[in-house]
Specification:
The chain has 248 residues and is α/β, with parallel strands linked by helices. It has a domain at 10-103 and 171-247: P-loop containing nucleotide triphosphate hydrolases (Rossmann fold). It has helices at residues 3-7, 54-61, 84-94, 110-120, 127-136, 152-164, 182-197, 210-213, 236-247; strands spanning 10-19, 31-39, 43-47, 69-74, 77-78, 95-98, 170-174, 202-206, 218-223, 226-232. It has a six-stranded mixed sheet, with helices on both faces. α5 crosses α6 (152-164). The two termini are 28 Å apart. The mean pLDDT is 93. Bound molecules: adenosine-5'-diphosphate (ADP) and magnesium ion. Residues 21, 24, 30, 48, 50-56 line the site of adenosine-5'-diphosphate.
Length: 248
Amino acid sequence: MSLLTDVHLPAVQLVSVTKRYPGAPGRGPVLDEVTLGFPERAMTAVMGPSGSGKTTLLHCAAGLDRPDSGQVYLGDTDLADCDESALTEIRRSRIGFVFQQFNLLPMLTAFENVALPLRLRGHRVSGSAVEEALRRVGLADRAGHRPAQLSGGQQQRVAIARTLIGEPEIVYADEPTGSLDRASGRQVMRLLRDLVDADGRTVVVVTHDPVAAAFADRVVFFVDGGIRGMLEEPTPDRVAARISAWEA
Ligand code: ADP
Ligand code: MG
């Protein structure tokens, strides 16, 4: 048992989670009895080859998709006990999601994109909260810009500000630096790291980049729908060595 798991309870716990997609006969399950916890107030990186089930893992952990069997617990809540409206409420109030392609609405300004989750919930939008979220990601002076007027890195930082406005306990980021240049990618990883260190949130990030993965407290290596190893306190070199070992 690592120090990490001794000190931090899991914010999310998957127990023997199996997921199959119909129409893929002859293929094993996309998730094959996965048992894994994401420790609270820590960053976990998930790495693995394309098609190994990482996105499906995140979707099941976030209540965006339901496993065929096994349990997903968010704190004490078993997501299987939640109907669709309860799951929607959990996703809105407790979970943030950051995507590789940012998923900003092109007609809206940065300010409006960040405010959107509040508006969709029917909350009054506090301009100062939106400005604070943009300031947090270093974009206070870009509030009136639309996505097309921003760089990829800036767009991803707007997407992070949009998750912050919901005060999520858990932020899932699916290849958040996959479309970014190296410097922008580091900036995004530093912001995600800061959500853990400054706010005490739980962050789970899928990445192919050993340098990005080294921002995490722990790396989970995922192959063919199952866990093939973990690395605590990763460094880029140790992560790269592990990847080349199972790619060989
Ligand atoms: P990764 O994120 O590691 O690349 P995914 O979780 O996206 O992997 O996909 C794992 C496997 O499941 C792939 O073979 C993919 O084609 C399949 N898959 C993913 N989503 C669906 C879906 N909605 N319907 C059918 N097959 C899917
Ligand atoms: Mg994926």
